[in-house]
Amino acid sequence: MLAPVAALALLSLVLRRGAAPLRGQLSARTLAAAAGSFGAYALVLYALRLAPAPGVAAVRETSVVFATALAAPLLREPVTAPRLAGAASVAAGVALLALG
């Protein structure tokens, strides 16, 4: 797992810069993002028990579609034609997998 690597990185940061940078980053939003990331990883592992890996991997990439859909309203990022085309390609690929 990644826990030993994360622990070493955390220890390295504390030894080099102290605990202040960590305290500055600790917030409810940070904890919610961490919980969401862990939950998403757990769901992928569970899905791998139920379905073949290629299909799970393809559906996992739909995060690109969600990121594109939320980029303009939430992050105020421009959704360019290439980004939209990439998201559409991912969605079409997942749809083809679902049909096949």
Descriptive account of the structure:
- Among the domains are: 27-51; 61-100, no CATH class.
- The chain contains six helices and no strands.
- The chain has helices spanning 3-17, 20-25, 28-50, 53-60, 63-75, 81-99.
- Helix 5 (63-75) runs antiparallel to helix 6.
- The chain is flat and about 50 Å long.
- The model has no long low-confidence stretch (mean pLDDT 88).
Shape: flat
Structural class: mainly alpha
Number of helices: 6
Q: How many angstroms separate the termini? A: 33 Å
- Oligomer state equals single chain
What is the chain-wise order of helices and strands?
HHHHHH
Number of strands: 0
Please report which band the strand proportion falls in: under 5%, 5-15%, 15-25%, 25-35%, 35-45% or over 45%: under 5%
Rounded to the nearest angstrom, the radius of gyration is 18 Å
Q: Helix amount, in percent?
A: over 70%
Regions with little confidence, pLDDT below 50 for 5+ residues: none
Characterize the main sheet: none
Provide the residue-averaged pLDDT. Answer: 88
List keywords for this structure.
84% helix, 6 helices, 0% strand, mainly alpha
Summary?
With 100 residues, the protein is an all-alpha fold. The protein has helices spanning 3-17, 20-25, 28-50, 53-60, 63-75, 81-99. Among the domains are: 27-51; 61-100, no CATH class.
List the helices and strands and how they pair.
Elements: H1 3-17, H2 20-25, H3 28-50, H4 53-60, H5 63-75, H6 81-99
